Amino acid sequence: MTVAETGSFSAASRALNRAQSVVSYTIANLEAQLEMPLFERSGARQPKLTEAGKAMLEDARRILGDLQVMRARVKSLREGLEAEVSVAISVMVPSRAVVDVLHEFRERYPTVSLNLNVGELGMVMDLVLSGKVTIGIGGAVLKPDDSIVTERIGHSFMLPVAAPNHPLAAIGRPLTLGDVREEVQLVVTDASGRTKGRDFNVLSYKTWRISDIATKHQLIKAGLGWGGLPASIIHDDLRSGELIHLDLEAYEQGEYAIYSMRQLANPPGPAASWMIDAFRTRLSYCPNQADFHAEMAELRDTTQPLAAE
């Protein structure tokens, strides 16, 4: 697999940290056992897979995947409760669900240390891929990876908002693209680079790029621009009137999935497995977009008469 993926025996030897002679001998030995050539070597500067080699490569990938599953199962059976759980959680996961899960985690596993990372967009998947965390809870699974196991466990959604003193909040009708084009839009930059070259719901010509969602939240509340924020973060701000939901049809407000993520070869232990299940349970209670808007509409209906009095 490594020779085929790197394109040469020398590159494969560097990737595997083995002598090139060992790699060449091992391939030759495999060919002898299979009684068929896997690479064409004559007349080519680099080894090229034969037709048989291409077919065997797919089998090799499947066998390696099965081996990783087997090793993972052995590791899970051999090891008991973890000493530490490392987890990365997206800011899109409702904070109340995070607090509830971690509170119960502390009560249930008092001897297990916790290493918690909270970040934006592709950061969660990057930390899982690098092995720096055992599990990730978030979205932005932008590119499937065979080494990562993902499972949908909930949903979230973004809403365009502004401070009540922002010019967009004073327009007494549904907003158009023309209304927002010249207003500063605050946008979070993905430090992971996983979404490089892709902008999500960036509608204004003027943008301020922000490193994190918490700063974006505070700047929008201060009236320095408008932008999208997770509904779970701004729920209380909308109820108190510190933020106003912008009726902007051009802003895509569809729900998107929240996943649990882990490496195929590094299965979670008992405590991490419990945490995944706990997030799945808590997120199943989160309101969908229709319920959220219904709650906000009911709130407006109950506060308007009081304002009139």
From TrEMBL:
Which Pfam families does this one have? HTH_1, LysR_substrate
Which InterPro entries has this protein been placed in?
A: LysR_HTH_N (IPR000847), LysR_subst-bd (IPR005119), WH-like_DNA-bd_sf (IPR036388), WH_DNA-bd_sf (IPR036390)
Identify the Gene3D superfamilies for this entry: 3.40.190.290, Winged helix-like DNA-binding domain superfamily/Winged helix DNA-binding domain
Tell me the PROSITE patterns matching this sequence. HTH_LYSR (PS50931)
Q: List, in alphabetical order, the Gene Ontology terms for molecular function in this entry.
A: DNA-binding transcription factor activity; transcription cis-regulatory region binding
Q: What are the alphabetically sorted keywords of the record?
A: DNA-binding, Transcription, Transcription regulation
Mark the transmembrane ranges.
Answer: none
Q: HTH lysR-type domain location, by residue?
A: 1-50
PANTHER family membership: HTH-TYPE TRANSCRIPTIONAL REGULATOR (PTHR30126), LYSR FAMILY TRANSCRIPTIONAL REGULATOR (PTHR30126:SF91)
The family note in this entry says:
Belongs to the LysR transcriptional regulatory family.
Protein name, per record: DNA-binding transcriptional LysR family regulator
- Identify the taxonomic lineage of the organism of origin: Bacteria, Pseudomonadati, Pseudomonadota, Alphaproteobacteria, Hyphomicrobiales
